[in-house]
Amino acid sequence: MAKKQAVSFKLNGRQVEVLVEPRELLIHSLREKLQHTGPHIGCETSHCGACTVDLDGMSVKSCTVLTVQCQDAEVLTIEGFEQSGELHALQEGFTQEHGLQCGYCTPGMITRAFRLLKENPSPSEEEIRYWMAGNLCRCTGYQNIVKAVQYAAKKMSSAHT
Amino acid sequence: MIPREFEYYAPKTIPDALGLLKQFGDEAKLLAGGHSLLPMMKLRFAQPGHLIDLGRIRELKGIREDGGTLRIGAMTTENELIWSKLLQDKCPLLVEGARLISDPQVRYKGTIGGDIAHGDPGNDHPALMLVLGASFVLKASTGERVVPADGFFVGSYATLLKPGEIMTEIRIPVPAPGTGTCYAKLKRKVGDFATAAAAVMLRMKGETVQEVAIALTNVGASVLRARAAEDSLRGKAMNDASIAEAARLAMSICDPAADQRGDAEYKTAMAGEMTQRALRTARSRATH
Q1: Does B92 contact chain A (CB < 8 Å)?
Q2: Which residues of chain B have a CB within 8 Å of the CB of A131?
Q3: How far is residue A82 from each of residues A62, B42, B227, measured CA to CA in Å?
Q4: Are B5 and A132 within 8 A, CB to CB?
Q5: DSSP assignment of B110-150, as one string?
Q6: With an 8 Å Cβ cutoff, are B191 and A134 in contact?
Q7: B68 contacts B173 by C-beta, under 8 angstroms
Q8: Is A44 on the interface with B (CB under 8 A)?
Q9: Is the CB of A23 less than 8 angstroms away from the CB of B7?
Q10: Is any Cβ of chain B less than 8 angstroms from the Cβ of A65?
Q11: Nearest to A134 among B41, B51, B104 (CB)
């Protein structure tokens, strides 16, 4: 058996270390070893985006990243969004605009939208749809998800001015 | 789905990576963005005993222009291509192509070199490389060679890349001013490979086609260069009839495998349609 390796990285601002076989996927380390169950296992084939986390400034599907690739990385999951009891603008947006139904895709949606707004603070509807296309929602249409991202974009930009 | 056991290495330099590759030979696989390889490993279609991750080799990153040639590190990601102002100015075809690859998350990880070296006929960069006249730098521990894109793709998952070699750089001559390009891709849904796609590079002299290159994605065992279609257009005026004839000639070389994206006849017809669309758009973008 391949020897286990210690991998340390920053998870939502906190230094963590896990002991993993090289073949362990990031989604499993997060959920099973680090008790961060916000990132969900959906399709397992890099399509659905439910397992999306932010890794060193990139939105990635954590079912297609090895934990050993994350040495010294910075990882952000939905668990890192709420700050001292206050919801992030995106969490508020998804609540206010009813951007979810069953909620399964929501952690991935919010984590992806976070990076999108970092790169483009005031995206057009077309840009939101293009850059959110790696996250699937099976309950309903995407209209309210788009509105939720717009809500957050507006709130975040007014906070800066 | 979890891959079979393997040993993992993350070398920081090209010589270190080449050394590992030499040491483990056929047992080793190179990991670039991983979004083709890791799913194959999860499904146990690929079961390398040693995985050499190229992600920590800084030398393999970056986009620059050097004396009329664009030099792109093999580990440059699709999103980095999309966001490159240099490419937008000098080679917008590469930006257009990258925007059509998979989905945003995959484009943060997927790399140009991985897409080219994998040899999947469904990958999009090979067609772009053919029409742009690109060449690839292949390094081995014994030295390096530069091979043209034309001829590099020899079959399904088969390229001229030899065991022990790493693709380090993609070189693309900056297209002459006034060149019109287009990548027309039909896909069923976001994230999918092409049902059929066509890349076109076009230079016009007045109303006459001076130079044209056409390549087709996912309608054969590897990327196809539509030479007869090119020959039928070169030196002549471009109109509805000549575009239709070029599409017919492009379709005549298609030999797609039937799958859930369609049967061979449908895919061939779509290759013709994509050829027509790419030609028309490239013409509208070319300076006359």
Answers
A1: no
A2: 104
A3: 21, 34, 58
A4: no
A5: -BHHHHHHH--TT-SHHHHHHHHT-EEEEEETTEEEEEEST
A6: yes
A7: yes
A8: yes
A9: no
A10: yes
A11: B104
Vertex B231, ends B226 and B236: CA angle to 5°? 130
Measure the CA–CA gap between B195 and B204, rounded to whole angstroms.
29
Residue A52 touches partner B, C-beta closer than 8 Å: yes
**Is residue A161 over pLDDT 90?**
no
Give B97→chain A minimum CA distance, Å: 15
**Greatest C-alpha distance within chain B:** 61
Q: Which runs of consecutive H residues, i.e. helices, occur in chain B?
A: 14-24, 37-42, 78-82, 85-90, 92-99, 104-109, 112-118, 125-132, 227-233, 240-252, 264-285
Instruction: Note the pLDDT tens digit of each residue in A89-99.
Output: 999 999 999 99
Express each pLDDT in B45-96 by its tens digit. 999 999 999 999 999 999 999 999 999 999 999 999 999 999 999 999 999 9
Q: How far apart are CA B60 and CA B58, in angstroms?
A: 5
Show residues of chain A in contact with B6, CB under 8 Å.
Answer: 2, 22-23
Cα–Cα distance between A55 and A65 in angstroms, integer?
10
CA distance A48 to A43: 6
